[in-house]
Design brief:
Layout: H1 6-9, E1 13-16, H2 28-31, H3 70-83, E2 95-99, E3 103-107, H4 119-122, E4 125-129, H5 133-137, H6 141-144, H7 161-167, H8 169-175, E5 181-185, H9 186-192, E6 197-200, E7 227-229, E8 232-234, H10 240-253, H11 262-274, H12 279-292
Antiparallel strand pairs: 1-6, 2-3, 4-5, 7-8
Helix pairs in contact: 3-12, 7-8, 10-11
């Protein structure tokens, strides 16, 4: 696929501000500093205690209605990729394999990956939300303010992602939407966090972009063609269409969350046109539809 042209994007700096860091969201960069391998496939917020029932309550009429919670979604996503023989991460094209007792492990040499900060986390696959949970999470009162249901064992109230998972059935089903989940190198997932996604033309790369959280981090990962420059996550050209279609789908399925504005829709549509769906993306779409009850219309048959 060609580099997204300046004319197609309509701007030199294609910053997808729907994904910027929000106040109150834990920093993925700081999470990535741990030197110890984690037993989980991701670090997407504090998990609920085992046996916690899915939240009850009203949900919207479109989008995911087959997967109730994120833990369930991770298991189903793993099955989809395993049964299809697909073992390549989205952002860097690294191959991975399941190792008993260790989860999905990355072959860093397969893609020339060089860790930028956290070598231990780079060795595992995590399930990335293309549209970060914070982007839709902050539209929920449970995330922003808490809920009477969100009280810990010591009687202390809490809010944020954990509360939204516990108290909002609508948040839980959006977070669990398989169309928005992709396997990626854990370190990239952690360092991207909620950074805006976009493309910096060469003249703009000399000027760090400060997002809402004041972040202007720059990270490269060896031969991996995705990178973080000036606080902007720049996905490799071969998967920009995949990500664009995920954003367009999420915006259409959950319109009340305001995930994509008109300017960004133009960028996404250009990405989707320049990187059309391939055979695996279409097959993935069908497999997800069979599990959660709906397909991504932007991918097609």
């Amino acid at each position: 696929m060609r580099e997204l042209s300046r004319g197609a994007a309509g701007v030199c700096l294609a910053i997808l501000t729907v994904a910027i860091v929000h106040a109150g969201c834990s920093s993925a960069v700081s999470r990535g500093r741990s030197d110890q391998p984690a037993p989980h496939d991701d670090e997407d917020g504090e998990p609920l205690p085992p046996g916690t029932p899915p939240p009850a309550g009203p949900v919207g009429s479109t989008g995911n209605h087959g997967i109730r919670v994120f833990d369930e979604a991770k298991k189903e996503a793993g099955k989809i990729y395993a049964t299809a023989g697909q073992h390549i991460d989205l952002y860097c094209g690294c191959t991975f394999a399941v190792e008993p007792g260790r989860g999905m492990r990355v072959d860093l040499t397969s893609c020339g990956y060089v860790p930028a900060r956290d070598a231990a986390r780079a060795e595992r696959i995590e399930w990335e939300h293309a549209v970060p949970a914070a982007a839709f999470g902050h539209t929920f009162a449970e995330w922003r303010e808490g809920s009477p249901k969100c009280v810990d064992t010591k009687g202390k109230r809490f809010k944020g992602r954990k509360c939204a998972r516990l108290a909002s059935a609508e948040f839980a089903r959006i977070e669990a939407d398989l169309h928005n989940l992709f396997p990626v190198v854990g370190e990239v997932n952690g360092l991207r966090g909620d950074l805006p996604m976009g493309v910096l033309d060469p003249p703009d790369r000399a000027h760090a972009h400060l997002n809402a959280g004041g972040t202007n981090a720059t990270f490269h990962f060896g031969q991996c063609q995705s990178a973080i420059e000036g606080g902007v996550f720049m996905p490799r050209r071969e998967v920009r269409g995949d990500l664009a279609r995920a954003y367009l789908y999420m915006n259409q399925s959950y319109p009340e969350r305001g995930l994509v504005d008109d300017a960004h829709r133009t960028v996404f549509e250009a990405w989707s046109k320049e990187d059309p769906p391939d055979a695996w993306e279409r097959e993935r779409n069908k497999r997800i539809a069979s599990r959660q009850g709906n397909a991504n219309a932007f991918i097609g048959d």
